[in-house]
Amino acid sequence: MSAFLQRALGAGIVAGALLGAVPALGQDAAPSDGETVEAGTVDAETVDAETVDAETVEAGTEEATVEQASAEDATEAATVEEASEEAAVEQASVEDATEAATVEAATVEEASAEASGDPEPETSHSAGPALTFANSFFSYTNAVTVHTFAPAAQLSYDPTWLMQMNLTPRFYLTDTTFLWLNQSVSLEVTDSNFDTYNREPLLADTLLDLRQLLSWEGFVFQGQLRVGFPLSKASQAAGRILQTGVGLTVARPFPELAGFTVAATFGYRRWWATRNVPFTHEPDGGSCFTPSPGETPECQQASGLSTARDILLGGLTLNLAPIPGLTISASGFYFTTYGHELADAVVPINGGDTTHEDGSVTHWRPFTYFALAVAYDVLPWLNLQLGIQNSGGAAPLYNPDGSVRSPFSPDTQVFLTSTVSLDGLYGEIVGGDSEDDLTPEERQRRRQGLARSGGSSAF
Q1: Is the CB of residue 10 less than 8 Å from the CB of residue 141?
Q2: Which terminal Cβ of the chain has fewer Cβ within 10 Å, N or C?
Q3: Dist CA 272 CA 274 (whole Å)
Q4: Around 380, how many Cα atoms within 13 Å sit in the side-chain half-sphere?
């Protein structure tokens, strides 16, 4: 029962966020533990972060650096928090990439019209009127691990059912420049593997982007500047202050090929924080260590791996719309996070002091995300998507033994996402712009942004 990406992100694939974290400032002498964030999606992001071989080496090195049993105890306590944060690669990451990768209806329509030679593409829906809210969405996702349906597949039955709600409003400054906000909350319905937040709704980090659309020679470019606010428990435990990032999505629609669209997404994010390891809220008297001789004992460290600071991501999304209202999508993303370096540890030995430097083999930790989904516009403002993904947020690239992790594992999930176009629903209720005068192809292109690939929700 992983913790629904404990913070989710991340969208099984439809939103987009960039992550990172900063050089340790005060308490950076001790090591810290795993990550899945998106502590949750992640984002939290998948609480079942199995550590990579490199991470295993790093964890051992970090523990040796402090060389104190108390520090190792603290490490065990913190594995849950950080594992949930790193392994999930923070929901924001996945989701953001997702949304950008989906290329959102408006963008696709504009590029499609240009590619097909339309003299003047309609952009009232695709772009969005200046100084108004438009193309805003609310999604609700249920994700279940495949092993939940097969009790005999595991030596110890460990079902996982995760729910996530995601809100992504947009406010257009001009017809092609807009502010994008993402906030999600996740909950594991089944018993969590970690009792700390069993059946407790968990908020993800708040993400705010400034995005710019540009069409050129049949391509659609979407640039992104991001700031993230540490609202999740994992980010608060890591002492994070702010996230900054940049991103770029390049999409190429092929209207003549059944609405086929290719989108490539790239991004960088950085978390600025006050420390390099997660801390517990209350001191744990049984897990104290002294960073250096003569210093006050530290009793709040809660993990074994240092927290993520820098995050790089790249991915590819393919969309196909064979008939009006139907979208088939396949997505693949690669994430790599860079954990904080460790401070030198001074250890008293036989009346003298020995200094241990950071001997970690690497601080890079790679993750992947894959999804295949089919979505259909049940109503002009409602889209349902059914799919399968290798993880609720992001899965470690390697198994603990160093072998490459298969896309099909105990963490593999099937998900069902319902996405509501808020402005479409509003127009349906009060009466507004109608799509009755559009051709089926135009209507499909405009709604393509409704199809959110992925079971998480905030990238």
Answers
A1: no
A2: N
A3: 7
A4: 17
Q: Are 329 and 446 in contact (CB under 8 A)?
A: no
Closest CA to 277 of 298, 237, 306: 306
For the record, the structure tokens of 339 come out as 């954990």
CB 12 within 8 A of CB 317: no
CA of residue 338 relative to chain centroid, distance: 15
The residues with which 203 forms a beta bridge, in sequence order, are 185
204 contact partners, CB below 8 Å, separation of at least 6 = 7, 8, 9, 10, 38, 40, 41, 42, 43, 44, 90, 91, 92, 182, 183, 184, 185, 186, 231, 232, 458
Q: Do 265 and 223 form a contact (C-beta atoms < 8 A)?
A: no
pLDDT per residue as tens digits for the range 339-366: 998 888 777 788 778 888 888 888 999 9
CA of 256: how far to CAs of 91, 232, 322, 326, in Å? 34, 44, 11, 16
CA end-to-end distance (rounded Å), the chain = 23
Q: How many helices (H) and strands (E) does the chain have?
A: 7, 18
Q: What is the DSSP letter of 407?
A: S
Q: How far apart are CA 419 and CA 267, in angstroms?
A: 25
- CA–chain centroid gap for 447, Å, is 24
Q: Are 2 and 193 in contact (CB under 8 A)?
A: yes
Write down all domains in the chain, each with its CATH number in brackets: 53-450 (2.40.160.40)
Beta carbons of 55 and 11 less than 8 angstroms apart: no
Report d(CA 335, CA 96) in Å as an integer.
13
Residue 226: strand, helix, or coil: strand
Amino acid at 79: T
Residues 395, 20: contact at Cβ < 8 Å? no
Residues 410-438 have pLDDT tens digits of 889 999 999 999 988 988 888 755 555 54
Per residue in 166-204, pLDDT tens?
A: 999 999 999 999 999 999 999 999 988 776 778 899 999
Q: For residue 74, which of 364, 338, 297, 337 has the smallest C-alpha distance? A: 297
Which residue reads 């079971």 in tokens? 455
In the three-class reduction of DSSP (H, G, I as helix; E, B as strand; rest coil), residue 93 is classed as helix
Helix axes 69-86, 53-66, angle to 10 degrees: 150
3-class DSSP assignment, residue 403: coil
Q: What angle do CA 207, 272, 360 make, to 5 degrees?
A: 120
Of the candidates 294, 241, 232, the one whose C-alpha atom is nearest the C-alpha of residue 270 is 241
Q: Residue 383 corresponds to which tokens in the numbers above?
A: 């889209």
State pTM to two decimals. 0.70
Q: Is 57 left (phi over 0), alpha (psi -120 to 50) or beta?
A: alpha
Task: For the chain, give the number of residues.
Answer: 459
